[in-house]
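Posting for a labmate who doesn't have an account.
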Amino acid sequence: MNPSYTDPIVYDRDLNPGAEAWFKESAADHIAHVAGHLDILALHGVGYDTLHSTDPGTVIYEDDHQVVVLPHQSRPHH
């Protein structure tokens, strides 16, 4: 689900600048679909980074499959 359907301000750039979504490790079905998207990016020469973290930032939204966080200041925003 799109977090902004539940919480319209979660991606508000003034209130939550730099907010980003992360899959939970338990969202294996959702994560499995990402591989196909990464293959498409690679096919077209688009670079990407795959990040894993036990502490991606301050959680501002959470559901069964994902969290939306405000990243820690020490990590550059992409």
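Reply:
Got it, the structure tokens are right above this. DSSP finds two helices and three strands in the chain.
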